[in-house]
């Protein structure tokens, strides 16, 4: 099986933002079949509805402020914070102050590449 992967170098200025939903956009910043990194920008008030997936996820908060919910527990997170979501755990967020996240997923989010 051939491994699908991004280029080795990805330059932010060469990657277009992909509109995901009103107030939410992303850029895929590198991946192979085992790992993916995604830059995600939120406008104030944007809601990422509670959802789950089979991927492990870790996220770093670059900027902004969010009310994060993981497995029914809510916490306020802001620049410099991070979180981990195990596979199949329900999670979602409300953007309290416009900001940006760096999401990493294992394995790759193939649904993001369609």
Question: What features would you describe in this structure?
Answer:
The protein is an all-beta fold and 114 residues long. The chain has one domain (17-105): Sandwich (Jelly Rolls). The chain contains no helices and 8 strands. The two termini are 19 Å apart.
By CATH, the topology is: Jelly Rolls
Low-confidence sequence ranges: none
> How many E strands?
8
Residues in β-strands, percent:
over 45%
Q: What order do the helices and strands follow?
A: EEEEEEEE
Give me the secondary-structure category.
mainly beta
Backbone CA Rg: 14 Å
* End-to-end Cα distance: 19 Å
In CATH terms, the superfamily is Jelly Rolls
How many separate helices? Answer: 0
Keywords:
Jelly Rolls; eight-stranded antiparallel β-sheet; single chain; 8 strands; 114 residues; globular; 57% strand; mainly beta
Brief sketch in words of this structure:
By secondary structure, the chain is an all-beta fold. The protein is 0% helix and 57% strand.
Could you give the topology of this structure?
Layout: E1 18-21, E2 24-31, E3 36-42, E4 47-51, E5 56-70, E6 73-78, E7 82-85, E8 91-106
Antiparallel strand pairs: 1-2, 2-3, 3-8, 4-8, 5-6, 5-7, 5-8
């Amino acid at each position: 099986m051939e491994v699908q992967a991004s280029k080795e170098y990805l330059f932010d200025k060469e990657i277009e933002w992909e509109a995901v939903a009103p107030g939410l956009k992303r850029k895929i910043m590198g991946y192979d079949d085992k790992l993916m990194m995604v830059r995600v920008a939120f406008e104030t008030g944007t809601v990422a509805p509670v959802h789950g997936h089979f991927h492990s996820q870790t996220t770093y908060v670059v900027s902004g402020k969010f009310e994060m919910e993981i497995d029914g527990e809510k916490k306020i997170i802001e620049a410099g914070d991070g979180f981990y979501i195990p596979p199949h755990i329900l999670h979602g967020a409300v953007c309290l102050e416009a900001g940006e996240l760096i999401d990493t997923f294992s394995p790759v989010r193939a649904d993001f590449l369609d």
